Amino acid sequence: MNDGSNDTESRLVGIERLLESGEREVAPAWRRVTHGEPRWAVTAAILAAVILQLKLPERLTLLPFGVLPALEVVLLMGLVAANPRRVEPRNKRLRSLGLALIGLISLANGWAAAELVRGLVHGDEGANAAKLLLTGGNIWLTNVIVFALWYWELDRGGPANRMMCHRQYADFLFVQMQSPESAPPDWEPAFLDYLYLSFTNSAAFSPTDVMPLSRWAKMLMMLQSTVSLVTVVLVVARAVNILK
What is d(CA 94, CA 78) in angstroms, rounded to the nearest whole number? Predict the structure, then answer.
């Protein structure tokens, strides 16, 4: 009798394990709790933005040359020290630190873009076509990084909330979410996916294969396209005019 009951119990345990494994295979990674994504990609992007800021002419900087980039590096060091390898769940102070860092980079690049546009409109900028194109390209590329950081930090409440699966509804719909069979079961959006989204939005001035779902996502993408369009049109038009 005991052998029969033990056999039945072992079968039930086996069935439960099969069901559990089946559930894990069916549920995509972005729908369940996972490990935090590696920090190296977002750290490299922020350092690239800081280097690009240092390459700008001093007349386009908000504060004396090097002040904002130095402050941004200090904030970045604090974030890396708190979570050096992976983006793990953070307290409110660390999240505020991350948002402040992105805000500083956005402010610096927004100021540079506004000053460049003002100078082009009033004829103070653009004496040299090559330097103008380099400056415009610098601002455009930094703009791509800035909005990628915002998308990454805000989608479904940020990387830590996405890792813990705190929010059910996504703000951005990736192809892998629509067609789970086209991606490995451990796929979930990471910073490089948001960087690709930001680049294509700046280059095409519209969504490509990633669709914004929430209103804030649509407005932020619209703002990015506007900044990119104005920068490209004015810089290229002025450069062509100089070459003529």
Answer: 9
